[in-house]
């Protein structure tokens, strides 16, 4: 439904990885991983690598080792007859400020991407470059460009100026048409690709595709537009008839970007070898966990399970490898245990029976959650003559209890309490009530002590602008303040002119609190 009803390609980006989903009506004829060609299979690659930038022997493979590019080539019938369309799905690197080497890595990836895209375009195929480019091109594509130092001098933006054909974004910022023409001529530098979104929406502001999840910036639309569908300008003019973003679709820090083309795709009769359909994980035969821990020959790997085996049981080959029996003729001989092994097994069984008996003696699990009662045993004088006689004659008398071990004494006391439970129930209940009260009295000073030692987080102050409780944060960046805690406004990050955005309240937490 919606704009996806006529689309045949679905592109998703994972962390340092990309995937291109194709409908059966848009099965590609060729597919390739990476931009350098080092990971491609001969005979099945898209080709057209151009004159690559000067790189060392190790740098090209490093640019493709992070899984940041997948290329598929499709056939379609356009206004001018059968044509080719090559889709380059990319996830461009991010320049981490704390890692200077990543800035150089990002620029090398940009140069390699441009070299490959222009080479494929020169071969006669239309080209679409789409994905997370990780650079907002113009000030209109950024939530707060004035807050960025030297916005126009960013190397990534300069590369986009060189890669893209001149567009009219600057009219949003007050430039005249003459100024716009000069800017386009200076910045475009003969670029061969078009930002399709700006082609259809040249003056659309606050159209962002990425927001910070750490600061809740999506609530105030405080983001950037860094996800693009870039295509050669001939394809945009002849086939594109709709491009837009979908900020209402949540589930990620990015939102989908879509484009519609008026063309008829031709499907390949077979999927390229790179397709996931050919991977063992998707062959349709469910793998067993035991397969990952035993050696299996090629013959056994593709053989069927014996009809005699039960459903879900091991294959006969796996059973032989795991048990390793001694085979004599057609029968399997079982090793008889020796006398020493018999004695050892008997002793193990004895110990296990003892442990089971001890475990049963402990009672049910509910006994650990019931309050323990420690009623005192009444003196012999308070017992009836029958009870006195039985207690004197029984082996559990007072003289015998003193000479018995402590565990035997405990069992004897418990048995006496059980016998007298019906006659002295009121007395026991009264004593247990007094015991509970004494425990409650002891809780008071203990609770105060632990509260003084293990105090919780400090009470949050109220921010001055919104008069709402602040949130507690911890410094995680290396430096003198690493590990220190502070309070900031709990509202989401936004522009300074937005009253619902986070204010500039900040307060350190005293170490003593």
UniProtKB/TrEMBL annotation:
Residues 463-512 form the GRF-type domain. The record marks 254 as: Interaction with DNA substrate. The record marks 134 as: Transition state stabilizer. Its EC number is 3.1.-.-. The active site is at 91, 132 (proton donor/acceptor), 254 (proton acceptor). One of its GO terms (biological process) is base-excision repair. This is DNA-(apurinic or apyrimidinic site) endonuclease.
